[in-house]
Amino acid sequence: MHSRRAQTTPLALDDGSVVLAGERQLVHVDTDGNVMARAALTDAPVGGLLRWRDGTVVTTESGDVLLWSPPGQPRKLGNVGGNPTRGGVIAGSRSLVAVVDGRALATLDLRSGATKLLVGDPRASRQFDGPVVLDPTGALHVASVVGELLRVVGRGTITRRLALENALLIYGADGGAPLPSMFRRVELEPSPPLVVDGAGRVAFVRASGRVGVVGPRGTADALRLASERFCTKPLGVLPAGEGRMLVACRNGSLGLFGDGEP
Question: How many angstroms separate the CA atoms of 50 and 68, rounded?
């Protein structure tokens, strides 16, 4: 399978086999690389492939959520109401939660196909990064493009808001006009996905290069900064053992951060 536009994270299964997604197809390969099953898609997949029950869940650009259980063909479980920006996450036993069109947080009941808006509004100005991450308590965490981190529980209750950036980030109206000194102008690019560990700590690296950890408690010192600007083009943050995280950058540099409990 070859597709220059494939942007979906593969899914590794317990038996060592892997499910891959291309621009318009799914492929299941064994540990030796042999194709075990293949299925066509009518829409481009986005985000990561997910495991649910005995199949692979696929989110697509049009918002369709599909379940593939070889040797059958993918079947539609529902639609989240828009483009599930950078994919979704399985929450609980039957829900998929995703950022939709970058503006809202929505959940899809994988059994009934019912969709519900949790946070935000498709017409709102706030832009979420996505994807959503789930902590050990079942709470959802999502960051906005400008650096606001939200913790969401239940049917959409926001229990915490934190600023991951130390200044308000806005565009210049004409892309280059000087702004008041109280603002810091940056390019509002998506930041790499958040990571949550078993203790509920949320690790982040912003598009600005800012690296840090948010502790599970809602106290004023919940955010611990690891680096103000580690690199200019971060690729992602990954867990690297108890109380540690690894940050990778496009220039090839790697940074290992961690000092235990934040």
Answer: 10
Nearest to 202 by CA among 211, 215, 218, 192: 215
Tens digit of each residue's pLDDT (9 = 90 or more) over 138-191:
999 999 988 999 999 998 999 999 999 876 444 333 333 444 444 444 446 889
Short-list 255, 225, 143, 120, CA closest to 192 = 143
Q: What's the whole-model pTM score? A: 0.84
Backbone angles phi, psi at 189, to 5 degrees: -95, 150
Q: Of 18, 16, 23, 2, nearest to 70 (Cα)?
A: 18
User: Alpha-carbon torsion 138, 143, 147, 151, what sign?
Assistant: negative
What gap in Å lies between CA 42 and CA 23, rounded to an integer? Answer: 9
Structure tokens, 197: 């560990």
Instruction: Write the pLDDT tens digit of every residue in 103-133.
Output: 999 999 999 999 999 998 767 667 898 899 9
Distances 134 to 65, 112, 151, 261 between C-alpha atoms, Å: 19, 22, 10, 19
The amino acid present at 257, given as its one-letter code, is: F
